[in-house]
Amino acid sequence: MKPILPLAAALLATLVAAPAFAQEGAPAASISAAAPPAKRGSFVTQLELLPRGKLTFGVGDDRASTATATAYGVGVTLAHDVTPNLSIGVAPRMLLGVAGEHATALGKQLDLRARVALHAPISRALQLYGFLEPGYSFIFVPGNEGDDPSGFVVAFGGGASVDLPQNAFLIAEVGYQLGFQSIALPQQDLELSTDYLALGLGAGTRF
């Protein structure tokens, strides 16, 4: 009977040691299976159609407004994800064809804007978002030899993005921008401001 005792002790030691070895190996498996860190930067190039808007001009309370001609824009957005649901960045754009609906001379507009966006994932590839873009704008009036109108602007709107392979994605968004541009005169500022509805399509990449 004596030879049986060492054999039983060896089997018991093997059974007790097996879970320990399994637990020691678990962290290595977890590390190897860990997902790569999420990419938090993004860059988007966007084309915009501005089918409707308002051009306001005048001094003080003596002001008038007219509908705008259809304008076109191109812009970029550079953003950083602070959290999965919040991003901050910049969103400059250039508008072409800035004018009243019956004007023959077409101007340009440069909008230099910051951007804050809230994101709501719908699925792994689709998300909705809303944005706010405050900034400063310059209107370049054709034939103007004096100061160009400039001033504060704020845009707001929403959109959707769809992920593609290789960190690429597509976006579609709609927004509206309020403008408060004017020209500083010795006696009183001359208002020449634009409000625009914008429809945009773009493509971007994450990095």
Features of this protein?
207 residues; mainly beta; Porin; 1 helix
Question: What is the compact description of this entry?
Answer:
The chain is mostly beta strands.
SSE map:
Layout: H1 4-33, E1 41-59, E2 62-67, E3 71-83, E4 86-90, E5 93-98, E6 107-121, E7 126-140, E8 150-163, E9 168-183, E10 190-206
Antiparallel strand pairs: 1-2, 1-3, 1-10, 3-4, 3-5, 4-6, 5-6, 6-7, 7-8, 8-9, 9-10
Q: What does this entry look like structurally?
A:
Helix content is 14%, strand content 61%. The longest helix has 30 residues, at 4-33. With 207 residues, it is mostly beta strands. The protein contains one helix and ten strands; from the N terminus they run αββββββββββ. The protein folds into two domains: 1-34, no CATH class; 41-206, Porin, CATH 2.40.160.20. Strands 1, 2, 3, 4, 5, 6, 7, 8, 9 and 10 form a ten-stranded antiparallel beta sheet that branches.
